[in-house]
Each structure stands twice: as structure tokens, then as C-alpha cells.
Amino acid sequence: MKSSEAVGVGDPYGDFQTPPALAEEVWGALDVDDVDVMVEPTVGLGAFVRTAPAAARSKRWLAWDVNAEYVETSRTLLAAQGIAGSVDRMNVFDLDPGAVREEVAGKVVLALGNPPWVTNSVQGRMEVRNLPAKRNRFGLKGFDALTGKANFDIAEAILLNLIEVLGSARELRLAFLVKRSVAMKMARDLLGQPGVAGAKFFGIDARRWFGAAVEAGLFIVRLTPGDPAVESTIDVYPTLGGSRSTSAGYLDGVFVEDLDAYASAAHLEAGPDDRLVWRQGLKHDLSKVLELRRTADGLVNGFGEAVDIEEEALSPLYKSSDLAAGRSPRRWFPLYQTDLSGPVPHLEEEWPKLAAYLQSHRVRFDARKSRIYRGKPAFMLFGVGEYTTAPFKVAISGFYDDPTFRLLEPGADGAPPLVDDTCYLLPFWSREEAAQMHSHLQSEEVGAFLAAVADRTAKRPYTKAVLGRISVPAAA
Question: Could you tell me which of 44, 101, 34, 105 has the C-alpha nearest to residue 78?
Fold first, then answer.
């Protein structure tokens, strides 16, 4: 399972200062001879200034940071290195294209650094005000989608913002240490657009350099505004200085994580009109109330309280860890809603104990933070529909590296099996059909296909979009 969400949580800015030895390796991967201006939006303690080769020290530098102590340290380093330029205290999201136009217009600009390795929600929980405003003057296709998300990587926002701010450059090169998932997301956004002249990713040992359990590396992309040429692939190297690479990129309008591996698995790519509709599991945001455990003394909720409700309302609930581990469910869920209109009519008459239990936690239901619950009926659930009551399901966790599909069957009392919203499912009303689909999805060739198209370093490698790409034989 991914641990990228934990990266940088000890510091609200996701502040991993770059070790000088790593900064030197990064410089070794860069060609700065024809660069006019160096830009570092999150300069920190100045590792890249400190280790800059002579060719880079001869350029003009523009650097910023939100930390006043870092600014003073890096400003001193800049002067000590004999570098012309400035280091100012500034939130990178407050930079305006007009303020730097005179410095970068018509020039070759190299922007580099090591931006925060956290998501906006982590910073938000810590009440850190280092977040991007929702603006997009240049129509970047990734930016609107990014700022509309509840959770996104700050590094991704910084890179997209820099492309906007430095848009007057004749050529813009980005070279940043980021999580691999951020690099591949940026590749998806940028590749295939006019003016993208090339992209590379070099892996690093993030545990060695930062003590971080996440795949990361140096992401490099070269942008030439106004150039109609289009680059559709990114070269991916396992290490800095590596000579052998794989390629990811667009093929026939579809992004592929490993183009070489895809060549032998392409026959499993479903056509746009033949894609299966995968469903996401239950979303309720109240696990301590709704996800119940069975004990020798009866049902217990997440608060350790005994729960007395009707047994016929309960269904087995599989979590991501249950699916990945191949084990039986350890939670039971009161399925009181089966479509998006709200809880079943006459809930009080059909299941009075359940109705009373829900009502006893009404304050907690009403306090759920997600906007999707606003204006909806009390006790509203999402991720429900006709498929929810299907007696058989084929399901997979979206979170785990290795794709493990499970065939889920009804409980002993015939209750339909359920999954939570970290999982995806296909519903079936026939065990035979479910078993055929399960056999197909667990085949080696489907595993090879998913290895080629899924980004296994992402927090959620297997999404509805990725799973929908798997074609299904007529017999399945």
C-alpha cells in the first residue's frame, strides 16, 4: 500500500532539504551552457546554489522561499558564490508573470529545485497557508482540474504555476525532484501539447536521501512556447546517470505507462465503446458509526459501543486490505440505502432499531465535512445503486501495487457483499458469469496489461479509468 501521503507530514510544508551530494548528482544530469536565467521557486537552504557548477554560477538567478531564515541563508550563499541575482521572501503562488517578464522574456530559462512533497489537504489540516489560488490565465488543461480537486500535490501545483508565470520565456526547462506520481501526472498533462519538446524522469533512492518511503526522482521537461512540434513520450530511467530507459506516453490518444510492455499486451485495450463500467464502493465518511464488528457479545461500533440493530439489515463489508490479503470480511454494514434518492422509505417501520441507532448519531452524520452531503437527506450514502444489491461481485482494491481481483459471494443469510470507496467492482447476478470474469481478470495477460498501463507509484494505481481499459472476451 502507498505511504506517499505520509511523506513530509512531520513538517507542514513537506520540507525535505536537498542533501548537497544529491544536488551535485542533479547538476550532473543538466546542461546549462545555453541557459540565460536560473529560477528556483523554493530555494530552501540553498543546496543547488551551494553546489552549482561554474557554468550555472555565471547565470543570473531568481530565487524565492516562504521561510525568512531560508531566504537569508540562500541570499548569503548567492553572494558568496559570486552569483548575480536575487533571493526574496515570496509564496510561489503569489508570483505574477508581469513581475518577472523583464527578467525572462525571450530567454532560455531553467527552473529547478525540490518543492514540497505533500498534498494540499495535509497542509490544510495543519493550517498552512501555502496553497495555490484558483487561477489559470493561460488555459493549461491540468490547472483547472488540479484546483478543482479536494486533494492534490503541492509540487504539481507549483510546476503548473511556474509554466504560467514563466510563459514569456523563449524556452523553459523544468528540473525538479518530485514524487514519481507527480512526474507522471505532469507528463499526462503536458505531453501531446504543442511546444513540449522533451521529457525525462530519473529515479532516486528517496529512502536513502530523505528517509521517505515513496518512489521519487528528477523530472525534466523542456517547453518551447509557439513551437508546433509535439513530443508524446517521456523517457524513464531507474537512476540518475542511468543509460537504459523505458518510455511512457501517448499511443493513439491513450496514455501508456510502459510502451515496451504495452506492445505485447495492446490486444487487451478495450475500444471506447466496449469499456466495462466499474463501480466504486460505498462512501459514507463515518466508519466508526457504520462499520461494525462482531464480537462474542454482539455487534460493536468503532467507539467500542454495543450496537443492537436488525441482523437482516447487515451485509459483509470488504475493505481494501481484505481484498488484497484474500481474507474474509471483518466488518458489517447496515445497508439502509440502495439508490441515490436517500435511505429506503419507511426505514422506521422496517428496521426500527437501525433507525434509532442512526438517529442517535445524527449529529455526527450532519457534521460530515464533504460537500457532497450538503442538502441531501439525513444519513445519505454514496456509491450505491442497483449494482449494490448484486449477490456476486468481482472487486479490486484501488490502493495496492499488485492487482488482486476477488470473487465476492453473498453472506450466509444471502446478504449482498459490499466494498468501501477505496475499491472498485463489477456486479453479477449469476455466479457462473462472475466466476468467468474473475478468471479472466486474474489471468497473466491481464496482469501484464495492467503493468503496462497503470502507474503503480500513484496513491491509487487502479481507478475506474484504468480498469475500464481492460477488454473482455465474448465468453467472459
Answer: 44
Q: Which residues contact 220 (CB under 8 A, 6 or more apart)?
A: 29, 30, 173, 174, 175, 199, 200, 201, 202
63-111 tens-digit pLDDT? 999 999 999 999 999 999 999 999 999 998 898 888 899 999 999 999 9
Cell output for 403? 492487482
Q: Give the strand pairing for 392-397 and 423-428.
A: antiparallel
**Residues 85-119: b if buried by 16+ CB within 10 A, e if exposed:** bebeeebbbebeeeebeebbeebbbbbbbbbbbbb
Helices (H), 224-351: 259-263, 287-290, 320-325, 347-350
266/43 Cα distance (integer angstroms):
43
Residues in CB range of 376: below 8 A, 6 or more apart: 342
Sheet holding 85-89, edge to edge: 85-89, 60-65, 37-40, 108-113, 171-179, 216-223, 196-204, 233-237, 246-251, 254-256
Nearest to 192 by CA among 271, 248, 237: 248
pLDDT value for 367: 96
Measured from the Cβ of residue 317, the count of other Cβ atoms closer than 10 Å reads 23
Q: Tell me how far apart the alpha carbons of residues 183 and 234 are, in angstroms, rounded to a whole number.
A: 10
Q: Which fold has domain 20-256?
A: Rossmann fold (3.40.50)
Please write the tens of the pLDDT for every residue from 17-43.
Answer: 999 999 999 999 999 999 999 999 999
Cα separation, 448 vs 468, whole angstroms: 15
* Domain range annotation of the chain: 20-256, 279-468
Sign of torsion, CA 61 62 67 72? positive
Q: What is the Cα–Cα distance from 292 to 307, expressed in whole angstroms?
A: 8
* pLDDT value for 253: 81
Distance CA 408, CA 392 (A): 6
Pairing relation of β-strands 306-307 and 85-89?
unpaired
- Please provide residue 418's backbone torsions phi and psi, each rounded to the nearest 5 degrees: -120, 155
CB contact set of 442 (below 8 Å; sequence gap of 6+): 404, 405
Write down the pTM of the prediction: 0.73
